[in-house]
Specification:
By secondary structure, the protein is α/β, with parallel strands linked by helices. It is 19% helix and 24% strand. The strands form 2 sheets. Strands 2, 3, 4 and 6 form a 4-stranded mixed β-sheet that branches. A hairpin with a 5-residue loop joins strand 2 and strand 3. The longest helix is centred in the first third of the chain and has 18 residues. It is elongated.
C-alpha cells in the first residue's frame, strides 16, 4: 500500500484569511476610532477655519470650540487652516466630545476598537 501524501494547502489559506480578518477588524491605519459623539476642534471666529487647539486653550478671544457630530460612519475632520462646517458651537447636553484630533486632519469613526479619545491617543 503506497503512503498517503499529506496536504498543507488548507492550513496556509486559513492563516492568510485569519490575518486579513484581524487587520480589517482592528482598522489600523484606516482612521481614528473614538467612543464619543462629537469631535471637538478649534474654529476661528472670523474665517470659520480650523485653528490649532492651543488657540482655544489660551482663550485668545478670536477662536472658540466647535463640535462636529460623529455618526455611524466615518467623518473627515479638516486639517488646521481648512474651512469647518456642519457642526455646532455648543456641545449638546448629555453628549461627549473627542479631543486632541490631529491637526493634520483625520478620518474619525465612532465606535470600533479605538481608544477613548479623551487624551489624544486614538485608534491604531
Amino acid at each position: 500500500m503506497p503512503p498517503v501524501a499529506r496536504r498543507h494547502a488548507s492550513r496556509s489559506v486559513s492563516v492568510g484569511v485569519v490575518a486579513a480578518l484581524a487587520a480589517t477588524l482592528t482598522g489600523c491605519g484606516q482612521g481614528t476610532n473614538v467612543s464619543e459623539d462629537y469631535a471637538q476642534i478649534c474654529q476661528d471666529n472670523a474665517t470659520e477655519k480650523r485653528l490649532p487647539d492651543d488657540d482655544c486653550n489660551n482663550h485668545g478671544g478670536g477662536a472658540h470650540w466647535y463640535f462636529l457630530p460623529l455618526g455611524s460612519g466615518s467623518r473627515t475632520v479638516p486639517a488646521v487652516g481648512q474651512p469647518v462646517a456642519g457642526g455646532v458651537d455648543t456641545l449638546p447636553g448629555g453628549k461627549t466630545a473627542a479631543k486632541g484630533i490631529s491637526g493634520d486632519g483625520a478620518s474619525v469613526s465612532r465606535g470600533g476598537f479605538g481608544g477613548s479619545g479623551s487624551d489624544g491617543s486614538h485608534g491604531g
